Predict the 3D structure of the following.
Amino acid sequence: MVETSPPDAAVPGTRGNSPSGERTAKHKFRGRYVYAVLGGHAAQSLGPIGLGGGEVYALTEGRIAAAVSDFPEGRIRPERRNLAAHQDVLKTLMKETTVLPMAFGVIADSEAAVRKLLTKNQATFMSQLRHVEGKVEMGLRVSWDVPNIFEYFVTTHQELRESRDRLFGKHGEPGQNEKIEVGRLFERLLNEDRETNTERVEAILAKVAGEVKPGRCRSEREIMNLACLVPRTSLATFEAAVFEAARLFDDSYSFDYNGPWAPHSFVEVDRKA
């Protein structure tokens, strides 16, 4: 079963003409909320689409810029509306340029701190921008779609079935050590199947994805959680590859792909200025 689900040239701002100048004269802000690092030819303003309706604008330093909005006094909470606003800004930026996304909740103390971050990491940011240029992140989760994962493995793995039958076919209550042993066998088979199935899927996705990174499985039923770096022009090809991979499996497996996102899994932004 395959499903899709919704879980990446104006005048640049400078020290003299940064759009933040008049704001700080009228209001007191604790700092700048940072959404992403991007190429230096960024639009000066994206309008009031940021957290709390704040205006998102670019602070440019050299050949790169940071997309920020003024952040008032108070604490930022990972509420749905704030998370949605953060993602919406990234999606808007991705329509115009390549981005190095910041994680939710990154706040610089001041405009000067943002500029220092950009200056110190100029070469690194430029290298990472080149690496992900024209690409987006697509996610793929594959899970066992069965009522009881242990019983499914008992049915499909003779070794586990025989061990289970020996344990519960005896007279009397099985000992704790025996139960632990069966549990370890189940865990081993579970991980072996995850590894084998992931290799099969990755071999197909590698035809279109420049990089595929495995993430942590969030539940016992989950087989793989993959992040794929895909050229924006190849999204239809990626979708076809997911369906091709799904055809290798029966209805006991569920494929759920999502995106496009900013390439969070393929960049590492140093927040230290």
User: Anything to note?
Assistant: The first strand starts at residue 2 and ends at 5. Helices lie at 21-26, 80-94, 111-120, 122-132, 149-156, 158-168, 176-205, 235-246.
